[in-house]
Automatic annotation (TrEMBL):
Protein name according to UniProt: Alpha/beta fold hydrolase
AB hydrolase-1 domain sequence ranges: 4-55
Transcription regulation as UniProt keyword: no
Gene3D superfamilies given in the database record: alpha/beta hydrolase
The UniProt record lists the keyword Metal-binding: no
Keywords tagged on the record: Hydrolase
Organism: Ruegeria pomeroyi
Signal peptide: none
Pfam families: Abhydrolase_1
GO molecular function annotations of the record: hydrolase activity
Length: 65
């Protein structure tokens, strides 16, 4: 089974939740950019900064693109 963007974002969300961080800064490059965007949707108001570098935000393409 192939991991999705949402699966990767959950890997970021869970420790932030478990450790009780009130505010986080997220940075994502390439595939990590799409994961950071997904994680930001899970973390909502806790994201102070979202920085993306060369992120592939085209939802129509596969996670490997």
């Amino acid at each position: 089974m192939e991991a999705t963007r949402e699966d990767h974002a959950q890997v970021i969300f869970e420790p932030v939740e478990h450790l009780g961080f009130d505010v986080v800064d997220l940075y994502g490059h390439s595939l990590g950019g799409t994961v950071a965007v997904e994680a930001a949707t899970l973390l909502k108001d806790r994201v102070r900064r979202l920085v993306l570098s060369e992120a592939n935000l085209d939802k129509g393409r596969s996670i490997q693109s």
